[in-house]
Automatic annotation (TrEMBL):
GO-annotated cellular components: cytoplasm
Gene, per the UniProt record: dus2
Full protein name: DUS-like FMN-binding domain-containing protein
Chain intervals with Basic residues compositional bias: 76-85
GO molecular function: flavin adenine dinucleotide binding; tRNA dihydrouridine synthase activity
Chain intervals with Low complexity compositional bias: 60-75
Ranges where the record places region Disordered: 36-93
KW tRNA processing (keyword) present: yes
Catalytic activity annotation: a 5,6-dihydrouridine in mRNA + NAD(+) = a uridine in mRNA + NADH + H(+); a 5,6-dihydrouridine in mRNA + NADP(+) = a uridine in mRNA + NADPH + H(+)
Residue ranges occupied by any DUS-like FMN-binding domain in the UniProt entry: 132-369
Biological process according to GO: mRNA processing
Domain of life: Eukaryota
Length: 498
């Protein structure tokens, strides 16, 4: 009895001590949050196309159509660590001398005229759209086409570094019309004329001259050029590209000016929030003045992790600057399609939202009616487009690994069946093998292309684009030495492209 009481008292004491030192207690929580704010790479490992650093190949043993929730074995419960922004996380009102100076400089910039006033034969409409974000590895041609099929208004290509695309040769597949930029065997970027009115090519650069040269290489196949100023990954920032440009705004602006002067398609820019709100406004005002047609803001700072909630309410200020200039501003961060588009509009004032991970998990999030089931509807389309576009199995497998199971009532398959499907995916060595094992009929690629073609032609943008190119001269912007090399090779595909 006495022993029982003693044990109970000891247990109470132990419990009290645990509460006092537990990380969730009020004393230690801020410290824990500070630790979470350390820099982290954005999204999965980089980065196949056109970058010099390559990603880890997908690990077969972890391949999954629906990683997390498909495994029926008990999983350790993950701590939910998305935190809401709180007052004090940033300063809305200028508090420091620096912020006061930035606020004044912003107003001064806003009072100045545009640096470069350009008009384009084909003006891109960036407003009132759900658009596909640039995503290294996940933004390959079949993924962009599927996004367009499901209703994406515009699609960004994954970042390609300037030097990677400069000097690339352009070839056209006479059967499918697919355009490939390549150096020797390695394809650097692949596109199809069907996506041209909607596709924006994103460049990674820290050099105005190289950025302009890179933009010229692909100009004939795209409707816009975008400069990546938001990627926080070391492979981008170590050479002064991506988010590093946020710390060198003069260089950032010089790159934009150089690209703006070089190409005859609209130019845009994608940034992240800076730590200070007034500094962000000032940077935005300078970018908006250059003559860019759109500014996309990823509503996270460079140091924020992808799982931390995007700070939408910081965007309203920037959207207002855009409105004063007549330049569109797109909201990026935590967009989920029709489900929260209205909320984004309400909270930010931005009419367009750019989707990255939600579209990576299920490209049909662009549907106004909401997504369809990944497994039964999206996967068969993806495999058929992959077969038709001759996309590599590695890329397709990577895409499939990002797909998440559609919740009921979209999907009603059992956990056991999901597990089985994951195994089928991890064992498969080709699109054909996977299609056979999933009992998906291939050979529908052309039909899907025709369906997509009809859908896209029905959009108002198509008519604008057709009108703008009517009578326009076809120019070949390839550098002279590339043209010579092509002539020497006598490449049939290249000849077909000419
Ligand atoms: C796999 C992956 C690759 C990415 N690659 C790029 C890129 O090439 N260029 C870029 O500007 N942002 C890139 N991002 C960032 C996204 O475009 C987007 O800004 C970010 O994921 C936030 O949007 P979300 O909350 O909708 O995911 C990438 C993100 C992911 C997940």
């Amino acid at each position: 009895m006495l022993f029982g009481r003693l044990t109970a008292a000891l247990n109470r004491l132990r419990l009290a001590m645990t509460v006092a030192v537990h990380p969730a207690s009020p004393i230690t929580e801020p410290a824990a949050k500070r630790m979470r704010l350390s820099p982290e790479m954005e999204g999965p490992q980089p980065a196949a196309i056109g970058t010099t650093v390559f990603p880890k190949p997908p690990n077969d043993s972890t391949a999954s159509l629906a990683t997390a929730s498909t495994d029926s074995s008990p999983q350790p419960k993950k701590k939910k660590s998305r935190r809401s922004p709180k007052a004090g996380d940033w300063s809305i009102v200028p508090t420091s001398e620096q912020e006061v100076a930035s606020a004044a400089a912003c107003e001064e910039t806003m009072s100045l005229p545009f640096e470069l006033e350009r008009s384009y034969a084909h003006e891109l409409v960036y407003s009132n759209k759900l658009v596909l974000a640039p995503m290294v590895r996940s933004g390959v041609l079949p993924a962009r086409l599927l996004s367009l099929y499901y209703g994406a208004g515009l699609v960004w290509t994954p970042e390609i570094v300037d030097k990677a695309i400069i000097g690339a040769q352009r070839s056209v597949d006479p059967e499918t019309g697919i355009v490939t930029y390549h150096k020797g065997q390695g394809a650097i970027w692949t596109t199809h004329p069907i996506e041209k009115p909607f596709v924006i090519f994103q460049i990674g650069s820290s050099d105005p001259k190289l950025a302009a040269e890179a933009a010229k290489v692909v100009e004939q196949d795209v409707s816009g050029i975008d400069l990546n100023c938001g990627c926080p990954k070391p492979f981008s920032t170590h050479s002064g590209m991506g988010a590093a440009l946020l710390s060198t705004p003069d260089l950032l602006l010089d790159i934009l000016r150089s690209v703006l002067r070089a190409v005859d398609v609209p130019v845009s820019c994608k940034i992240r929030l800076l730590a200070g709100q007034q500094d962000t406004r000032h940077l935005a005002s300078r970018i908006l003045r250059t003559g860019v047609r759109n500014l996309t803001v990823h509503c996270r700072t460079r140091d924020m992790r992808p799982r931390e909630r995007a700070i939408w309410d910081r965007l309203r200020d920037i959207v207002e600057l855009g409105e004063r200039r007549g330049v569109n501003v797109i909201c990026n961060g935590d967009g989920e399609g029709a489900v929260n588009w209205e909320k984004i509009k309400e909270e930010t004032g931005a009419s367009s939202a750019m989707l990255a991970r939600s579209a990576e998990n299920n490209p049909s999030v662009f549907r106004p009616e909401g997504p369809v089931d990944n497994l039964t509807q999206v996967v068969p389309r993806l495999l058929n487009i992959a077969e038709y576009t001759k996309c590599s199995w590695g890329s397709i497998k990577f895409l499939l690994m990002q797909y998440r199971p559609s919740p009921p009532p979209l999907s009603t398959i059992s956990r056991a069946r999901r597990k089985e499907l994951n195994e089928v995916l991890s064992r498969a060595k080709s699109v054909e093998e996977l299609a056979e094992n999933l009992k998906i009929e291939l050979g529908q690629g052309k039909t899907l292309f025709d369906e997509l073609d009809a859908k896209l032609r029905a959009r108002p943008e198509w008519a604008v684009w057709e009108a703008s190119r009517a009578g326009s001269e076809v120019v070949d912007p390839k550098p002279a030495e590339v043209q010579e090399a092509q002539a020497e090779e006598g490449n049939v595909l290249l000849a077909a492209a000419a």
